[in-house]
Amino acid sequence: MTDHLHERFQHLQVSRDGDWGDVLTRAGRRRGRRRWVLAAAVMAIVALAAPTALALRSSVVDFFESEPAPKPVVLDFAQLDIGAPPGMETEVVAGQARKILERKGYDGRVFTLYAAPSKKGGFCSFLKGGGGGGCLPAYSVPISPELAIGTIGPDGVIRGGPVLVDGWVGLPDAESIELRYEDDQVDRQEITWVSRPIEAGFFLFDVEPAHWRDAHQPQELVVLGADGKALRTEPIRFRTGRLLPTIAGAPAQAILSDSRQVTSIRAHAGRLEAALWAGPTADGRTCYWLRAGGQNYAGRCLEKDPYRPFGLVRSQAGRIALLWGGALPQDIAAIQLRYEDGKHDLIRPAGGTVLWEIRPEHLVRGHRPDRIVARDSAGRAVGRQTLPTKMGRTPGSSARP
């Protein structure tokens, strides 16, 4: 995988698709960019039109009457397209973000769901308190479930929550949804429907620890109509023990049973735990990969060449941007990350690796990171790398100044 592709790594959801198809569902589809004036006019017309699919419902959340999202959440939406590949921007209208539902989990934790329309059609959502965010395209999707797991150990055992099964329903006759478990227990809740421009139903299950274990885990979602009949059944692939050896992001060559966590940080004001993992291969090489929010991201396996060229990877998924890499050449003692505005950060490698969050204030034009300088213990520059500040530009690097 090239540095450019590493830089565009995408988030893996434990769902039906572990590839760009899932990411495109969560981050918008390739469609032509509309002019904002036209999109605003269409949005105004949509707001005035009668929502025919929901017209007969008595319990529909009126989107424009809902509580506006707080400024930090609006900022989260606004940053969704930073670093997105050209043509794959969500074009979310962050300023129109609204609170959709608030739910208390089994342990008292509060989950709040926000949504904002897209200029492409469709919408994006963000779940505060756990899980993450995603986008749904303009065309109807019968059901789009997501599974978010707080922390999974290298053995596939869930170490911590929350464990959430949430998502969207586009079936107009849907009234409620059931989460059915392997032990025949069932959780049921009413679907929260939202008017145009969202026009979708939402659900959220906080899975208790008793259902984290084998033979007790979630098995399927069943969407029910007003008469209680099943409209759609969607299996849940929950078995982390079986999924972990082939999970996308962790290199297939890595022996996961012998892997270890090298370093970790709390990213984006403590909202997300990110960790760099290392594992051996059968032929004696070492693989490194990024793990954040309980999910694995793209990684790489080093060749046996004793000379390691210097180069770090900048990875971004929505609101989180990380700089990472390993293993570094042995003579690198510090990394200087420089920004367009003249500021810089000094990073100390841990275990021959780097894991650093690029803060949100450095993700806007004119303040983005543009250069990396690697220094040895004497402070001499022993490696340089340029970083793109505009989409579509491929970064370059050199092993020596």
Task: Please describe what this structure looks like.
There is one protein chain. The chain has 401 residues and is mainly β. The chain contains 5 helices and 25 strands. A hairpin with a 5-residue loop joins strand 23 and strand 24. The chain is globular. The two termini are 25 Å apart. The N terminus and C terminus are likely disordered.
Unreliable spans:
1-53, 241-248, 391-401
User: What does the overall shape look like?
Assistant: globular
**Portion in helices:** under 10%
Q: How many independent structural domains?
A: 2
- Major beta sheet, specifics? 5 strands, mixed
Span from first to last CA? 25 Å
Strand order of the largest sheet: 1-10-11-7-6
Average pLDDT over all residues: 75
Q: What proportion of the residues form beta strands (DSSP E)?
A: 35-45%
| Beta strand count | 25
Give the ordered list of helices and strands: HHHEHEEEEEEEEEEEEHEEEEEEEEEEEE
Rg (C-alpha, Å): 22 Å
Q: By helix and strand content, what is the structural category?
A: mainly beta
Number of helices: 5
